[in-house]
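Write out the 3D structure for:
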Amino acid sequence: MAIAKSELILNEDGSIYHLNLKPEHISNTVITVGDPDRVDQITKYFDTIECRIQKREFHTQTGMYQGERITVISTGIGTDNIDIVLNELDALVNIDFKTRKIKSNRTSLNIIRIGTSGAIQPEIPMDSFIVSQIAIGFDSLLHFYDSKHIQIPEIARSLTSHLEWHIDKSTPYAVGFDKNLGVHMLSTETLLGITVTNVGFYGPQGRILRLSTSDDKLNEKMALFTYGINKITNLEMETAGIYGMAKLLGHNAVSMNAILANRSTGEFSKNPAETIDKLILYTLYKIVSYNKQLKI
């Protein structure tokens, strides 16, 4: 059955509604970033760039890096934008825009987030890199989808109890990274972590400027939570949504986090741009080596 025009919205030029992209504009390897300006920070290392397209906060460039075709796209901040980006990326490869029907042969994308993050454990070094093994969402995105089968309910239940989670807040959910892609991103230069995805930057992450929070001990309680031998390592705003939507749609995702702040010690990076640049080069190197392995 063809998908209705109100559900799959295309622009007059045949591109997908929000991203303004056509299927030929994207690669099967996609790097996501929050900041539209960070797209240029990555593609400045590319050998060639075949397209540059921007609409709203969604800035996309596709090009070649060391023989690998890679797309870089900005999502903007938050899992509400992740819902748009992941659904539309999937539509670009798995829906025929002419017939408006789902393709019989599905394409799986490799989706790698490069983002900034704040640590909540005092021992995590400033300017270090964390690969998110598990992401815990404090947003409600995944609860709008039939998603129980890809969640890790025991983590969510244990954390909800530990935090004495208020009934008025969205129920946390937990999702893991793609094991093959995620493990490949590890090295002696990275840490493996549990990442919490928050619905905001200030109150939801325990920051107090002029407004008090409903639980001023939230970060302290999160820092004390354990799952087996693992602790929550860092906070950010997109990873859980990416992991959940990717798994539901049959894509592979991993989140790479540059630690620019330590919420426990109150520190902030002295060289944030340098740290992000190092993570970009590290991730590009890992993407190339991963894709070469797949070709062997």
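Helices lie at 38-43, 79-94, 153-163, 179-184, 218-224, 239-249, 272-295.
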